Amino acid sequence: MGWEALGQWGEDAARTEPLAGGVANDVWSVRVNGHRAVGRLGARSDADLAWETELLQYLDREGLTVPVPIPTRDGRLFADGLVVMTFLEGGPPETPADWRRVAGTLRELHRLTQGWPQRPGWRSSTDLLRVESGTRIDLAAMPVESVARCRAAWARLAGRQTCVVHGDPNNLGNVRMTADRVALIDWDESHVDVPDLDLVLPDNAAGLDDGAYDIAAQASAAWEAAVCWDDEYAVKRLAEVRAVRER
For each successive 10 residues of the chain (247 residues), what is the average pLDDT? Predict the structure, then answer.
C-alpha cells in the first residue's frame, strides 16, 4: 500500500519532509493529530514489527526514552509496513561525558531485557557460529577466509548472557540528548545478542577493560562486515578483524 497507509492514523495525517533513515526504510517527518511524529515505511514482516513495537512500549514503561509507537485509529501499532512513532528532540553526543551517559543508558537497556526472545528471523553473533544466514547476513556470500575471521571473533563471545542490543549506537543520528535524558532512536537493527557489542563506544566510554574491549571491538567489526557485505564499508570493517592463525 505504501504511504497511503498513513491515512489509517487519521484523515489529517500527512508527510511533511524526508528524514535520514538508512537504506532499509523510507523515513519521514509526519503530522498526526496535529503533532509532529516520525513515520517509517519498510518491508519488514508483521512478526518483526510486532517484536520491535512491543519492545519500545516495554522500554518506555520502564523509563527509557525511546520513540513510542502511535496506534492507528483502530489500535494497531503498525499497518502495511508503516510504523508511526513519537518525535524526540535533542542533539548528538559531543563530549566524553556525553558518551558515558550513552553507555549508562545502553547498560540499562541490557539490564531490562535479559532473557528477551530473539527478533523473528534474526540470529545473534554466536548463532552464526553454527548457521550461515539471518535477516541481512548471508555468510555464504562472503569468501571462506572472511567467514573464518568473523567466526573466530564471534567465538570469543560464546557462553555470554544475551539481551536486546540496540545494534547501532555509534551512529550519531541514533542518539538524541538533552540536559536531563538520553534517547535512543532507530531500533531497526535491534536484536538479541551479547551486550558488549553495543559498548564499543568512542574513548571506551563504557569503561571496558583492555581484554573485554578487544573482544567486543573485534566481534562488532565482524558483525558490521557481515551485515554490509560486500560494500566499501564492509571491506573496511573486515580489515579490522584479525586473520585466523594457522595451526
Answer: 93 92 82 95 94 98 98 96 96 97 98 97 96 90 96 96 96 95 96 97 96 97 94 94 77
- Name the domain count of the chain: 2
Domain of residue 214, CATH code: 3.90.1200.10
Letter for the amino acid at 139? L
Are 157 and 196 a contacting pair, CB within 8 Å? yes
Give the residue from 86, 107, 137 where a domain finishes.
86
Task: State the DSSP string of 226-246.
Answer: HHHTTSHHHHHHHHTSPPPPP
Q: What's the pTM?
A: 0.93
CA trace torsion 87, 88, 90, 94 (10° rounding): -110
Q: 55 lies in which domain range? A: 2-86
User: Does a structural domain hold residue 215?
Assistant: yes
The closest alpha carbon to 222, from 202, 242, 207, belongs to 242
Q: How far apart are CA 47 and CA 12, in angstroms?
A: 28
Cell numbers found for residue 123: 540470529
Give the position of cell 567465538: 155
